[in-house]
Amino acid sequence: MIDWDDVRYFLAVAQCGSVRAAAERLKVNHSTVLRRISQLETRLGAQMFERLPSGYQLTDAGEDILLLAAQMEATSNAQESRVSGRDQSVRGLLRITLPPPVATYLLMPAFVEFARLYPDIEMEVMSRDDPVNLTNREAEIAIRVVYNRENLPLNLHGLKGPDVMGGVYIARDLLGDWQAGSVSKVRWIVKKRNGVPDWAREGDIPFADVPFVTTDTEAQIIALRQGLGVASLPCFIGDADPALIRVPGSLLRQHGTLWLLTQGETRKTKRVRLFTEFIAQKLAGYEALLNGTSIVP
Question: Which key words tag this protein in UniProt (predicted)?
Fold first, then answer.
């Protein structure tokens, strides 16, 4: 008989492509993953993976067992969701995943307030850009900026929040220098994966051709505050920073819409319901800041 625990490790390696990545996902040691895979191979009498320099590749036997493993995972997740849905206590683990800027610059005070209201709920805030799989129960709640509603997975329950607008921002001191004539052109400060936007020439300030590239929002904002150039930011970051101001003549653009996402029966648990209701109210109160109408341009 196949042990689901062994299959879980097999599936993680098949999906991640390496033992190291699978171990990180499952939060276990590298050796534990190898031992579980070895147990499964011994039980089935077949080799599941071919060890290549580029990673772990499924053998023919591994391909055959992959579909069964996915079906076992789906059954296990459905059972766990039904059990979780009947959990009406206000204690236990609550994992929330969201983009780092939304956590740092918008919702962390609300998270702290919720944690104080419900001290028996263990909150784990996963501030990361890469998506977390709610179906696999890697988190209970995802807060995401969604650009196209049609891209939302059909198996997730979504609660729509306010639209998120963005603008082009510059340090007040740098704007003063440009207005005084001591600066002729200003550089764009961009995140590496985004690059300079197509509308980069918009606004009254002339821009230099050479950008300054960072790897994350935090570094981008620090460079912006230091007066290096201009950057595109969500209004909830740029408008709330007293050192920054919108570039004269630039327009606001929609970054997306905030959504609270939950999965299956999990959303019926009391701690998940309490949290989503609480954060939905907070987001409604932040609407002007999120859509850029909290200040006079």
Answer: DNA-binding, Transcription, Transcription regulation
* Phi, psi at 172, each rounded to 5°: -60, -40
Q: Which residues of the chain have pLDDT under 50?
A: 83-86
How many domains does one find in the chain? 1
- Ordered DSSP codes for 101-152: HHIIIIIHHHHHHHHHH-TTEEEEEEE-SS---TTTTS-SEEEEEES-GGGS
Six-digit token string for 214: 């960072």
Query: Residue 220's pLDDT is what?
Result: 95
Position 32 scores a pLDDT of 85
CB 15 within 8 Å of CB 24 = no
Any residues with CB less than 8 A from the CB of 9 and at least 6 apart, and which?
22, 26, 32, 33, 36, 37, 40
8: CATH: 1.10.10.10
Give me Rg for the CA atoms of the chain: 24
Output the pLDDT for position 75.
59
CA pair distance 137, 152, nearest whole angstrom: 17
Query: Do the domain assignments include residue 187?
Result: no
Domain that holds residue 27: 4-85
Structural contact between residues 234 and 165, judged by C-beta atoms closer than 8 angstroms: yes
User: Which tokens belong to 283?
Assistant: 């987001």
Predicted confidence (pLDDT) per residue in 226-267, tens digit? 999 999 999 999 999 999 999 988 889 998 999 998 887 777
